[in-house]
Write the structure tokens for this entry.
Amino acid sequence: MDKAQKPGSRELQDALGETYGIWAEIREYIIKNYPKGVEEWNYSGAKYGWSFRIKDSKRAILYFLPRDKYFLVAFVYGQKATDQAITGNISKEIKELIKAAPVYAEGRGFRIQITGNETIPDIKKLIDIKLAN
């Protein structure tokens, strides 16, 4: 939460606890499938603290939002990606989350809470959809 100190690997491990390995797996999956991805930390203010994103030259691929012993991943999807996710082989719960997400000029933004391994297959599918659109 300290604006003056960008989180390092040790601080991130301490904050995320057991979910740190999941964070690393998702991050590695993006970099493996999009090696040109640019990684950056951003401080969003005292209320929200630090966030991490991987982006290409035009858009964010995925946002990581660290919390205490878990994290959120956030996507912004255009209509084509939204349609693919809703009709794709993704869990019903995540489809409902996407459908309920507010739509902004830049797209439909949604967040998924990561507390364990159960959502990793869906997250990887959502990343694949994002990279394809």
Remarks:
- The chain has five helices and six strands.
